[in-house]
Design a protein that fits this description.
Herpes Virus-1, mainly alpha, transferase, disordered N terminus, about 10% strand, Znf_RING, two-stranded antiparallel ribbon
Length: about 425
């Protein structure tokens, strides 16, 4: 069929593409599974071999009701996938049009409830009105084909059509040859070593959320111990009644108020164990916020420093240009200044991404070692930053020695804590 599985003669190209997408284009795996159990392979991929647009093969004279619009139409006006769920052409057209406008490509499936059979492109394309929508659908298909391939990624650069291919799919730094965008191959975020992809995703989501709202909810709400609905306490005594299940309980200890042992507004269990307050959600929320702010402030500080160092790099470029124009050496003579500015940005970039890593690390000897190496790297980066800003006051050898030390600290940390 021309899509990498030529030995499967009964599978049409449009269906073969869906199978390839489902199994991330791992052809050898598909062939092995097809030889062992072809029916199970198709079932797992949510397709069937004969998934082509066709009408029901019974007498066209009879009429049936469309299951969506409830209109009575001739049988030859009904279309069905191999799952035999038949609907009128107008409903199929509307279904496909809406989904494609929503950005779906491969994900267009049967209209029937609880049926997830995938619709191949040769079924969908004739149902789409207008060439503009068809072209959009083809672009979505191409996007899905690339994103599902285990060795391919679309460049995340603005309006960049380049597809990046690697031999070994893993979290690694790649750079687009067209727009020069640098990103992580696995998750298409900015490269984030030593932090792994799931962790940086959690961190960025946390930073983007309204943290004050989240912490207010943590500090001022609790779940009903009976029905688990969220309840807010905005004043009054510790005797709470759930608005949903009417369960009476103590706000402090979450115990049943009927067996609480006190008719007053104080928690008797708290009198017996004063530490109960220290274990409350309010105390936990305050500690969690304090921890988050500690790492977030350092993350933001290094991000701002990177922006300032970009300006420093520009100033160095202008300074070198001025010296060359005044016959005070060549570009090669002053190249070390440019290299120092580049290395400074590289080291600080790595340091910035050590903070999400540390935030989610469990306490223990390994975290202590990480924080020790992190502190060493930070100290050498600040030394390098100082010398780059005042390069005229330092000998070339002194600056290059500081570059070497900072880069060694960076590489040591990545070697010990980044899973490559």
């Amino acid at each position: 069929c021309g899509w990498g599985i030529t030995c499967i003669q009964t599978v049409l190209p449009a269906v073969a593409k869906l199978v390839l997408v489902h199994f991330h284009w791992q052809v050898s795996l598909i062939l092995d599974r097809y030889e062992s159990n072809s029916s199970l392979l198709m079932s797992d991929a949510l397709v069937q071999p004969s998934s082509t647009c066709r009408t029901l093969t019974v007498s066209p004279i009879c009429s049936l009701q469309c299951g969506v619009c409830l209109q009575v139409v001739r049988r030859d006006a009904l279309l069905a996938l191999p799952c035999q769920h038949s609907f009128c052409k107008a409903c199929w057209e509307q279904h496909c049009t809406v989904l494609v406008k929503d950005g779906l490509g491969v994900g267009v499936s049967c209209m029937a409830q609880d049926c997830s059979l995938q619709m191949p492109e040769d079924f969908v394309l004739p149902l789409l009105p207008g060439e503009e929508l068809k072209d959009k659908y083809r672009r979505y298909l191409f996007r899905d084909y690339v994103e599902s391939h285990f060795q391919l990624q679309l460049c995340p650069g603005a309006d960049c059509p380049i597809v990046i291919q690697v031999e070994e799919p893993r979290a690694r730094r790649v750079q687009c040859s067209r727009c020069m965008e640098v990103f992580c191959f696995k998750c298409r975020q900015m490269y984030h070593a030593p932090t792994d992809c799931p962790t940086i995703r959690k961190w960025l989501t946390k930073c983007a959320d309204d943290s004050e709202t989240a912490n207010y909810i943590s500090a001022h709400t609790k779940d009903c111990p009976k029905c688990n609905i969220c309840i807010e306490k905005n004043g009054g005594c510790n005797h709470m009644q759930c608005s949903k299940c009417k369960h009476d309980f103590c706000w402090m200890c979450l115990g049943d108020w009927k067996t609480h042992g006190s008719e007053y507004y104080e928690c008797s269990r708290y009198k017996e164990n004063p530490d109960i307050v220290n274990q409350s959600q309010q105390a936990q929320a305050r500690e969690a916020l304090k921890k988050y702010l500690f790492y977030f402030e350092r993350w933001e500080n290094h991000n701002k420093s990177l922006q300032l160092e970009a300006q420093t790099y520009q100033r160095i470029q202008e300074k070198i240009q001025e010296r060359v124009m005044n016959n005070l050496g060549t570009w090669i003579d002053w190249q070390y200044l440019q290299n120092a500015a580049k290395l400074l940005a590289k080291c600080r970039y790595t340091l910035q991404y050590t903070y999400p890593y540390a935030y989610y690390m469990e306490s223990g000897p390994r975290k202590k070692l990480f924080e020790y190496q992190q502190a060493q790297l930070e100290a050498e980066i600040e030394n390098l930053s100082w010398k780059v800003e005042r390069a005229d006051s330092y000998e070339r050898g002194d600056l290059e020695n500081q570059m070497h030390i900072a880069e060694q600290r960076r590489r040591t940390l990545l070697k010990d804590f980044h899973d490559t």
